[in-house]
Amino acid sequence: MVRYSKLAFRTLVRKYNCDLCYTPMIVASDFVRSVKARDSEFTTNRGDRPLIVQFAAKEAQVLSDAACLVCPFADGIDLNCGCPQRWAMAEGYGACLINKPELVRDMVRQVRNQVENPRFSVSIKIRIHDDLKRTVDLCRKAEATGVSWITVHGRSVEERHQPVHYDAIKIIKQNISIPIVANGDIKSLKDAENVHHMTGADGVMAARGLLANPAMFAGFDETPLKCIQDWVDIALEHGTPFTCFHHHLMYMMERITSKQEKKVFNVLSSTPAVLDYLSDHYGV
User: Fold this and answer.
1) pTM for the predicted model, two decimal places
2) Residue 24: pLDDT above 90?
3) Interval 137-189: pLDDT, tens
4) Which domains are present in the chain?
C-alpha cells in the first residue's frame, strides 16, 4: 500500500496474526539510482520478517539490481503488475504489464539469474483480463519462468469498486501449480476464510481491510482499543511522521467513531492534540 505499509504499520499487523508483509510499491529505477530514495523508501529491522519488497519496474536489469540491493534484508521481491493508477501505467509500470507477458518473463528470469540466494522468492501481483484465457496464459508463462507465487486481484484494470471476480481466481488456481493468493475486498477474517473456500487459493492478501482494522486477521470485527494503543506506542517509537500517524488512526477509528467525533478528530493537527483526544475519549 503506497505510503501506508511501512515499517511501523507492518510491526502492528504482525502482532495481530498477519503472516507475511509487503512494503509499499517502490519504483525500482529510483531505488537503484538514489541512496536518498533507498533511505526514505525502505526501512526494516530484525523483527520485520518475513518481508516482501514490492517494486514497480519495466526493465529486467533494473529490477534485478534492486532485488540484489534488498536481498540481504528481505525474503523476496514482488513485481507489481496490478497497479491501475494512471501515473504508473503511463510510465509503463503496474497493470499495463499484464499485456506484456514476455517482459514479465524476462524480468523474473533476470532476478532469478542474478540473486544468488535460492530461497529468495520472486512473485508477481496481477489484475485479470476481460478475456480470462489471457490471464491464464500470463500465469502459465510466469510459472514456467520460475515465479514463486502469483497474487491475483480479481478485477480488471478498469474496475475499481465493482464486485470482485472470485470465480476468475478459482479458474486461475485450477490451471496453475504454484501457489495463488487471492486479493480484493477482504475486510474480515470471515471474508478471508470464505474467499479461500470459494477460490481454493493458497492464501489471501488484504490491503484496505487491514487499514480499517489492523487486527482483522486475529478475528476482530472492528479495531480494538488495544490495537489503537499498540499503534500509538509503535508509531511514537518509530518516529512516524504526524500525517501518517494521524491518517492511520482515522482509518482505524472509522467504524467506532460518530460523525461528530470524526469532525473533531480528523482536523487535529499535532501529535500532542491527537494523544490528548485519545486519552480523554478512549483512555488510550
Assistant:
1) 0.96
2) yes
3) 999 999 999 999 999 999 999 998 999 999 999 999 999 999 999 999 999 99
4) 7-217 (3.20.20.70), 225-282 (no CATH)
**Is 61 among the annotated ligand-binding positions?**
no
Per-residue confidence at 2, pLDDT binned at 50, 70, 90?
confident
| Residue (of 105, 92, 238, 96) closest to 158 by Cα position | 96
From the number of C-beta atoms within 10 Å of its C-beta (0-12, 13-18, 19+), residue 161 rates as exposed
207 labeled binding residue: yes
Determine if residue 114 is labeled as part of a ligand binding site: no
| Catalytic annotation, residues | 83
- 66 annotated binding-site participant: no
Query: Hunting for cell 494521524 — which residue is that?
Result: 246
